[in-house]
Amino acid sequence: MSPQPPDTSADPPSPAVDLRPVDAENWRLCAALEVADEQRDFVSPVTRYLCLCHYGGLWQPFAVYDGDEVVGFAMWAVDPADQSGWIGGLIVDERHQSRGYGRAALRALVAWLRDDRALPSCALGYSADNAVARRLYASEGFVETGELEDDELVARLRFAPE
Q: Which domains does the chain have, with CATH numbers?
């Protein structure tokens, strides 16, 4: 049985965000992003993610913008084994947290992977101890699969066929 899309009728409106490739003009703004102290055990610094993107040959980086301001960062990849999209390194700068940017960025990433890349599903991983991320991803329809990726729980969202 396929999971049902989340009921978002009671959610506060998410801010409008744009996903833009990280480039020579914005990489320093991304590298300067910081998460709150209590989140540091759950994510790496953006500089590490940028290195993974540049040297790893798989991940691609996005800056998350609200207007002209970089408010977050994320990266994406396609698993060559099953063609599923992956979301990684999703962070919102500590100055912009608790405003809906994480949810807005997640929704934009999912839509981009589904619509622009035409992938069958997407996946992401997170620490079992990260209750905030776990709730967010479950509320957006991601289902834990029992898989582990680098000691992180894996959750997947299957896209409905057109």
A: 18-158 (3.40.630.30)
139 Cβ contact partners less than 8 Å away, ≥ 6 residues apart: 6, 103
Give the residue from 62, 51, 45, 54 showing the smallest Cα distance to 110. Answer: 62
- Is the pLDDT at 2 greater than 60, yes or no? no
pLDDT of residue 93: 93
Give 92's Cβ-side CA count (13 Å radius).
17
pLDDT of residue 20: 97
Q: How far apart are the C-alpha atoms of 143 and 39, rounded to whole Å?
A: 22
C-alpha dist (Å) from residue 8 to 4, 12, 19, 117, 160: 12, 8, 21, 24, 17
pTM summary value: 0.86
Dist. CA 17–CA 65, nearest whole Å: 5
pLDDT of residue 13: 67
CB atoms within 10 A of CB 160: 9
Per-residue pLDDT band at 12 (split at 50, 70, 90): low
